[in-house]
Amino acid sequence: MNRIIFTLIFTFFFSNIYSQDIYVKLPKTENNCPTIIIEEYIIANKSAIGTTKELIDEIRVLKDQPNRKEHKFFNLTENGIIFVSLKKKTAFKTQSELNEFFGIEKNNGIYVNGYLIESSDYKIATECIMEIELVEPDSENKLEHKAINVWTLTKENRINGCERQNVN
């Protein structure tokens, strides 16, 4: 009897170690572009950073998948995250402002580049909004309500992916 219990516990333990959280995303969301987060809570793209190094205070890169329970940005990490601190202010819209503008409930979930933003703390840099889609529920996406998908990627990046650059 002890042997059976030990085997069951051992099996459950190791199956949970190697299981990975899945990302909540819209169907056919495929890109290799990392998410850029400015000042810890503003989702952006590389245009918000600019081309001069003088505006950048700090850059940190997260390549590994963090723990969903401990990190609010977990669902945005499939392709890595670049955290940036800038010496300039970044204009943004909150998720509730975007929902309200499109006539959707303020607390409705918002997707960025196809990935659900799981925390209402995150905002989106206005200069980085390339396109906004209103996604209707259907059998493929299994949404319960209309949702907004904000694209911070250009159409070219969506199709061809992003250039990978080495960070020193």
Summarize the SSE layout with pairings:
Blueprint lengths: L1 H16 L17 E4 L3 E3 L1 H4 L6 E7 L18 E6 L5 E3 H7 L8 E3 L2 E2 L6 E3 L5 E5 L11 E5 L3 H6 L8
Parallel strand pairs: 1-4, 2-8, 6-10
Antiparallel strand pairs: 1-2, 3-4, 5-8, 6-7, 9-10
Description:
This protein is α/β, with parallel strands linked by helices. The chain has one domain (23-160). The protein contains four helices and ten strands, in the order αββαβββαβββββα. Strands 3-4-1-2-8-5 form a six-stranded mixed sheet. The radius of gyration is 19 Å and the shape is globular. The chain starts with a helix and ends in an 8-residue tail after the last helix. Mean pLDDT is 85; it is low at 10-19. This is Tissue inhibitor of metalloproteinase.
First CA to last CA: what distance? Answer: 55 Å
Return the structural class: alpha/beta
Question: Which value, in Å, is the CA radius of gyration?
Answer: 19 Å
What is the count of distinct domains? 1
| Biggest beta-sheet profile | 6 strands, mixed
Tell me the number of strands: 10
Order of helices and strands: HEEHEEEHEEEEEH
Uncertain stretches of 5 or more adjacent residues: 10-19
Counting copies of identical and different chains, the oligomeric state is single chain
